[in-house]
Description:
The complex is a heterodimer of chains A (154) and B (109).
Chain A: H1 2-19, H2 21-71, H3 79-86, H4 90-111, H5 118-123, H6 133-136, H7 140-151
Chain B: H1 3-20, E1 31-34, E2 40-46, E3 51-56, E4 59-66, E5 73-77, E6 82-86, E7 91-95, E8 100-108
Amino acid sequence: MASSVKMLGVGMAVMILVLKPEVGAAIVNSFVTGAQNIAEAFSNKNETTEENILEKNDATALILDQLLQEIRYSKDKPPQIIIEEREVSLVSKQQSYGRALEEQNVLEKKAIYHGDDPIVRKRLNLPPKLPSFEQWNPTADNFDKEFNAKFGSR
Amino acid sequence: MEPSLLLSALGLVFTLNAASAPAFKEQKLEGSKICENGLIIKTLYRDQSKRLYLKSRETVLSMTEKPTKNTVRRFETDNSEVVFLQLPEKAMILDNKNMKPILTECKDV
């Protein structure tokens, strides 16, 4: 059955090509155009992927370039002093913690949920519940306790 | 196939593999790191709140993770003044105002 259908198809194709060469040429043309379009689509896709990768690499390279250029000027101050200068005072930390709490309250009020279930919070598009101030901004002692518990005293 | 040809093909495969492997040790986000000038920093990460705690001597910085489009992980303090960058091969601390490095070449101890 299948072979007779195939034979019929081939016979019809030959008949069309013999009797109407312009129809055959049109069919061949459409096949060629289709194949070209597919090939172009593939090459465009590859180009786009390459561009994306290049863009990503450029972004990383840009950060690294900036860093390497600036490294020359980093010798004028000891790093600890710079870190301490940048470290905000306890009062301003408490202020920023207060602001974060206010923002959390506003969001929770909108979502009508004040619980701390991470799954529910994720579903309601709420950020994770703020920990206590000590956990949010641990002191050196608290940090050491947590660090040593996790990694030992190294 | 001739044995010599097979051997050279195998050699080529091994060479290509060795060339494609990274030449550096992948650095961890958490733990002790020693930086370029010998200063040791310690980091802790809380996955749930996406916060990184960085201790250098007696100073602890608490930082929030910021989304990036590449493999670099970026953390900023709440006042956005200090930035911690975790690259696959090293970590660094920057002054966000002028992108000036405070500590560079920080690697796992």
